[in-house]
Design a protein that fits this description.
Rossmann fold, seven-stranded parallel β-sheet, alpha/beta, single chain, about 250 residues
Length: about 250
């Protein structure tokens, strides 16, 4: 798909999301950036897009609610008159021992990591159809893509991300005839969380076959590929430096 003068929604626009938005703007797209509690970061990303010569708008929405996805899509159409790409990046990553995993915690993890992807995609489908097709890109996890829980304390997160893969495949089948291609990205060690020690960062790099963290640019490359391809759908692409091989 040619991206110039098209419109993309990016949810969860912190850190990697900011790099994705800049790259899409660099391809000539206008951006709709959603946020829940990080307005200053959304504004900074919108400023990046403007510096790239494209338009950006921000919208407050809780993507884990039905109203959130509908609000974002309506804002995109009101602002730009069309919608072509949805990048579902909103996610929460946290560890909770199984014995401490409450129903509320379970629901919150699945709401943000899985339900939000469905709700935003579902809300966007009519607009994507009206545009003659489009792209939906979800975010899973390399562990879920590899069928390896591997780390204790992440039951709700792992379950949600496995659900994202199933959702991606199902939506791809449902929407293929509309030329709406649906794929997912399963990141591995891309950016180190700020609470990791230098020793932990080095351990992760050593456990990765390519010997390093990937960096946000690797996710950007995958997003651009999945936006521009016209024949890949229903795939979940690991961007993990070979972690699934170790």
């Amino acid at each position: 798909m040619e991206l110039r003068d098209k419109v993309a929604i990016v949810t969860g626009g912190k850190r990697i999301g900011r790099a994705v938005a800049r790259a899409l703007a660099g391809r000539g797209m206008d951006l709709v950036l959603s946020y829940r509690g990080s307005k200053p970061e959304a504004e900074q990303t919108a400023d990046d897009v403007a510096k790239a010569g494209r338009r950006a708008t921000i919208v407050a929405a809780d993507v884990a609610t039905p109203e959130g996805g509908a609000t974002i899509v309506a804002h995109a159409l009101d602002t730009f008159g069309r919608l072509d790409v949805v990048v579902n990046m909103a996610s929460v990553y946290r560890s909770t021992p199984l014995e401490a995993l409450s129903v509320d915690h379970w629901n919150a993890d699945l709401d943000v990591n899985l339900r939000s992807a469905f709700l935003c995609a579902h809300a966007a489908v009519p607009a994507l159809r009206a545009a003659g097709g489009g792209r939906i890109i979800n975010f899973a996890d390399w562990l879920a893509r590899s069928g390896r829980p591997n780390y204790k304390g992440f039951t709700s997160y792992y379950t949600a991300k496995a659900g994202v893969i199933a959702l991606t495949e199902s939506l791809a089948l449902e929407l293929a005839r509309d030329q709406i291609l649906v794929n997912a990205i399963a990141p591995g060690p891309i950016l180190a969380p700020p609470d990791l020690s230098a020793e932990e960062v080095a351990e992760v790099a050593a456990a990765t076959p390519v010997g390093r963290w990937g960096g946000e640019a690797e996710i950007v490359k995958a997003v651009l590929f999945l936006c521009e391809t016209d024949f890949v759908t229903g795939e979940t692409i690991r961007v993990d430096g070979g972690r699934h091989l170790a």
